[in-house]
Amino acid sequence: MSPSNKSAPHWDVVVIGGGNAALCAALTAAEGGARVIVLESAPQTWRGGNSVHTRNIRCMHDAPQDVLTEAYPEEEFWQDLLKVTAGKTTESLARLVIRESATCRQWMRQHGVHFQPSLSGTLHLSRTNAFFMGGGKALMNAYYRSAERLGVTVRYDTAIDRLEFDGARFLAACSGSERFEGRTCVLACGGFESTLAWQREAWGQNQWGEWTADNFRIRGTRFNMGVMLRHLIDQGADAIGDPTQAHCVAIDARAPLFDGGISTRVDCVSLGIMVNSDAKRFYDEGEDFWPKRYAIWGRLVAAQRGQIGYAIIDAKAIGRFMPAVFTPEKADTLAELASQLSLDPETLVSTVDAFNASCREGRFDHAVLDDCHTEGLEPPKTHWARPIDTPPFFGYALRPGITFTYLGVKVDAEAAVHFAGEPSPNLFAAGEIMAGNVLGQGYTAGVGMTIGTIFGRIAGAQALLASQQFERATDVIA
Ligand SMILES: Cc1cc2nc3c(=O)[nH]c(=O)nc-3n(C[C@H](O)[C@H](O)[C@H](O)COP(=O)(O)OP(=O)(O)OC[C@H]3O[C@@H](n4cnc5c(N)ncnc54)[C@H](O)[C@@H]3O)c2cc1C
């Protein structure tokens, strides 16, 4: 159906999703005068998707700026991204996100977001990441309040299950028998992490015949089911990314299946050692600063038998990391600790003995890449290696915690969704559903919110423009 033979749709911009990217798009379009509806699958109490769990946003800056210390220039941000993604990124889009991150905080403030200096216990982030006062929940509440002031309509409990198209042109979003016609649409409905069957299919079985994804926990919302992502791919939208790539951290094995959030993350890995269910080490715990490495540990644990790992520390580590919500197992001897964790005591003791014997202690400093390292040990521990010899000893059982998946739809610098290499004139995407354009693999802390904020604003601005063009086109026809 073309615009010429149909009455004008009621909505200028239909936004699907209710997290950070969705609200950034909705606010931007509404600021320009657009009639905007936000369709959120969650009930009001659970609105805001994964964004409510966040704490900070990564921003470039050439000099100290409000809560950010020193400088974090474009080139350094880009090199950080290049390193963690191992080149699986689109440089033009990544640089666009980086550059825009320099100015987005001012806009965020205008919509009621407050910032605070980096939290103590959050290592190495005061220079690069601006923390939200009250966390992501306060940020989302501020955005919803601002949306209300700007006249944005919000519908909760509205899970969109399909879109109607005329070729690559969006016509309407549907939830069961309900239709929401719009001149334009912004898709900001997250990844597919909460559809465990899709994860199972993507990850398959490992060498022990186990279905790897069966032991995953989802750190965020249960509402990111990937229904729109699957639908778009089925409708011929160009996909980007690998379905097994995700932000995946090691979290407490006692975490709930969904929405455990930040408090289930265990941040002591670099202060001790990590062993698998055979009580053997399997990776360098001191490879780099924790914010640059925490997102690889979920994947490393996923590759172990039973998808479980155990972080072992001693009394020296206590007070040096943000405590998790669950208390660790605690014992006066390593053998006792092993029994409590259902590990073989003899093997754990011998693993720790070998580790302790290989430690070449220098000047321990967890705030720099220090010279405490192992010698003659495989795998090595490159930094912060100190003997685990001071009781009491502590251990956490850890599982892979999926934060968000990277498979998404391909977009361009206007956030337009592509079909067979061509941009849709009125369908845009922002946030996790397109994060794979920038993040092919790996992660650097705070960049999820940077991508969602910048692309949310771009998508909102482009949707506004496209709806104005639609209006002009229908005026001419009329
Ligand atoms: C525990 C945790 C901590 C994190 N901490 C940080 C951090 O400090 N900094 C950072 O940068 N990133 C962090 N992230 C990642 C960050 O949350 C995401 O990158 C970001 O929130 C993505 O925003 P989004 O709007 O794309 O998705 P979301 O915020 O997840 O929003 C997606 C929305 O779409 C809705 N939805 C899904 N399907 C449909 C449908 N079919 N119809 C209608 N609505 C639908 C959902 O209900 C949800 O509201 C964290 C994530 C988690 C889980």
Oligomeric description of these chains: single chain
What is the percentage of strand-forming residues? 15-25%
End-to-end C-alpha gap: 16 Å
CATH topology of the largest domain: FAD/NAD(P)-binding domain
Characterise the protein shown here.
This protein has 478 residues and is of the alpha+beta class. It has 2 domains: 3-191 and 226-244 and 406-477, FAD/NAD(P)-binding domain, CATH 3.50.50.60; 247-401, Flavocytochrome C3, Chain A, domain 1 (Alpha-Beta Complex). 28% of the residues lie in helices and 21% in strands. The protein contains 12 helices and 21 strands. It has helices at 20-31, 74-85, 91-100, 104-110, 135-149, 196-203, 227-234, 290-293, 297-302, 334-340, 345-358, 447-477, and strands at residues 11-16, 36-39, 56-58, 115-116, 129-132, 153-155, 162-166, 169-175, 178-187, 217-218, 239-240, 246-252, 273-275, 309-314, 329-331, 359-360, 373-374, 393-405, 408-409, 416-419, 422-429. The strands form 5 sheets. Strands 1, 2, 6, 7, 8, 9, 20 and 21 form an 8-stranded mixed sheet that branches. Strands 10, 12, 13, 14, 15 and 18 form a 6-stranded mixed sheet that branches. A hairpin with a 2-residue loop joins strand 8 (169-175) and strand 9. Helix 3 crosses helix 12 (447-477) and helix 10 (334-340) crosses helix 11. The longest helix is centred in the last third of the chain and has 31 residues, at 447-477. The chain is elongated and about 80 Å long. The model is unreliable at 1-5 (pLDDT under 50). The structure holds flavin-adenine dinucleotide. Residues 16-22, 39-42, 48-51, 53-57, 159-160, 188-190, 219-221, 223-225, 227-228, 261-262, 403-404, 431-432, 446-449, 452 line the site of flavin-adenine dinucleotide. Flavin-adenine dinucleotide binds next to helix 1, strand 3, helix 7, strand 18 and helix 12.
